[in-house]
Write a structure and sequence with these properties.
The chain is 90% helix and 0% strand. The protein is mainly α.
């Protein structure tokens, strides 16, 4: 007999993946649309507002559903977060290159700073965890 919680976990995992793919399509599309308007600073505002809002939503959702206390849910969250950050790194790199090609280096500087920060923080975290374990 199948465990009904497995169906719920599969549904939640599928829903999470759809959100990740949706964000991976929507964020670059929004940034490219903003880039075509000539007001490139709005792209930085989009990133500065959307990512913290999603983080806060995730924290509230995690506290409400108590996902943080379930080992399987924590592992799934870790895998999904890793996948989404890797995907967002590729998207950010694409937006950086696109902005540099279409609008020049000065317009791409905010995205370049975010890209360098992402790579530096990932490298520092990786080295820290390898050193600790």
């Amino acid at each position: 007999m199948r465990d009904p919680t497995d169906d719920l976990a599969a549904l939640a995992d599928r829903r999470r993946r759809m959100w990740i793919v949706g964000a991976a399509v929507a964020v670059p599309a929004a940034l490219m649309a903003i880039g075509s308007t000539g007001h490139l600073e709005y792209g930085f505002v989009l990133i500065a507002l959307v990512f913290p809002a999603l983080f806060i939503y995730g924290q509230i959702h995690g506290r409400r559903t108590r996902e943080g206390t379930d080992e399987r849910a924590c592992d799934q969250h870790r895998q999904a977060a890793s996948f989404s950050w890797q995907l967002m790194a590729v998207v950010l790199l694409g937006v950086t290159v696109w902005t540099q090609v279409t609008d020049g280096f000065r317009a791409a500087v905010p995205y370049l700073i975010l890209s360098v920060t992402l790579v530096a923080s990932y490298t520092a975290a990786l080295l820290w965890h390898r050193w600790r374990h």
